[in-house]
Amino acid sequence: IHDSKTTKVQRAIVIGPGPKTEGGITEVIRRVVDEFNAAGDVSVEWISTHCSGTGLQKIAAAAKGFVSAKRELPRANLVHIHSSANISCYRKSAFFMLAKLFSKPVIWHLHSPNEDFERFFGAEGMGARFAKAVLASSDRVVVLSDTWLDIVRPYVPVEKVEVIENPIPNVPDRGSDERVQGRILYLAHLIQRKGYPLLIEAFAEVADRHPLAKLVFAGSGEVEEAKKLGEALGIRDRIEFLGWIGEPARTEELSKASIFALPSYQEGLPMGILEAMAFGLAVIVTPVGGIGDVVVDGRNGFHMKPGDADSLASALHAVLSSDETCRRVGGRAKDDVQKYSASSIAAKWRQLYEAVLSEQTEVIFNGHKR
Description:
It is a single chain. This protein is of the alpha/beta class. It has helices at residues 24-39, 55-72, 87-101, 114-121, 126-137, 146-152, 196-206, 223-232, 249-256, 271-278, 309-320, 323-336, 342-365; strands at 12-16, 44-48, 78-83, 106-110, 140-143, 161-163, 183-187, 214-218, 239-241, 259-262, 282-285, 302-303. Helix 1 (24-39) packs across helix 13, helix 2 packs parallel to helix 3 (87-101) and helix 7 crosses helix 11.
């Protein structure tokens, strides 16, 4: 990150899902904003552009956010937009144009699944050209891992791209080991892209060999479909559905589980994986998006082939058969992700803000217009 000159950050507007919205982006923003608030050196106005609910409620949330942004922008130094691809990009582009109207520098923070990003930004037509222009015109584009540098390279000048990973939670000292051996946690939305049907099918393959094992789904989405699949495979009594959980239930589940599984087909860098590693779970994942930059197969977790139920079943059987393997791999995972602490990631945001504002100051000082 450029740091030849720093500028005190007086006020930043962060655009993204609201504090009460389900999803990993909300947790990313919350953890860093909490660090800023504790330090007192960065003032953040968190403006919600999205909420959980009906289509009408989501439109109302976006409109309310736009009005708030227009009101707050005159007092802001910069705008930090968190976006996925597709409709999320179009929705956030309205805030981008508003920020530019007020001559504010914009940081565009990408949280998109990898294939969605490549399909969306690699498409032909006016929509894709507009999205690429917004991305290229941002003062900085933040990506979640080194792999993402290569993914965005065709669309953004490399000197504008910064790698800033997602933050892990502050793990409380529980005082005693509450792990339940054989408790497998899935912490994410139940959607096809996340591979939840594959996990149920793979668990059905190994359930008889591990009669004490249990599969726990913590997430909203296609819960009824998942229940029906469990019934059809004869393992419904071995699966628990918690729905979407916030704190303190999230911490409780991460403290109890011994294994974490997320067989996604495409990803950015999922918060659930980082959280599971921070709590010392043995994670089984697909090395898609930025996951392979964090989870090293056989060291701090296990890779499986995307879409391969047999590959997942083999990994599940291996960790269910050895408590020692769970503890060893989980311990390494916990050690390896400490560099993604909320304080460390907040420091990276802060340095980026200072660099962007420093560059803007230099442009104004030299008499150039943006």
